[in-house]
Amino acid sequence: MRVCSLLSGGKDSNYALYRALREGHEPVCILVARPRTRDSWMFHVPNVELALLQAEAMGLRHIARMVEVSGVKEREVEELWRALERLHGEVGFEMITVGALASRYQYKRIERIARALGVEVYAPAWLMDQEEYLRKLVDEGIRFVITRISTMGLPHKLLGVPIGPVEVEVIIEAARRYGFNPAFEGGEAETLVVDAPHYRARLGLKATPRVLGDFEAELVIEDAWLEWKEQLASSP
Question: What are the counts of helices (DSSP H) followed by strands (DSSP E) for the chain?
């Protein structure tokens, strides 16, 4: 099927597009929504512009677009709908990929938009066990870093560190102890994918961790670039 991917830069939207590609669907558009406020109910906010760099890493920058939305509850949903409506008229996609895990607020609104456009929703991680999902991401080669922490118990030392099997177990253990969602569906943390099996290049980052409070910290990204895998493999 011809798919339009909602891409935020985080692990979940990247995983949805990755699975769609694995299943043989054809990406015809990538839409990145950038809220004007930091407290959007609907969209990922930190470093969302780097989703365009991810699209370039996939070889899909030519089909990627960014749309600014207000960040105001419900109004931003209407703005997304209008942007998708325009894209649907231009490229005729049949399915929308979305990185929804358990948020019915987000999923139901995407479902409503899809129904209005006459297309399907593709959410491969929807209602998956959160610990199983986190392990599956790493097992399938999705490499991400945590860019923001907003919960008690998640170690600040994980900021900016590529999350592998060892780090996943640290996150799961902390989530069990402190009661937060290990896949961060409740906004406990934000992530940025730096490599994946469908990436032709991985993201390089120049970044500095910054502690904002006892339970809050962020990764300040000063620069980001692509490191092409073919060049890395051929270098001595």
Answer: 7, 9
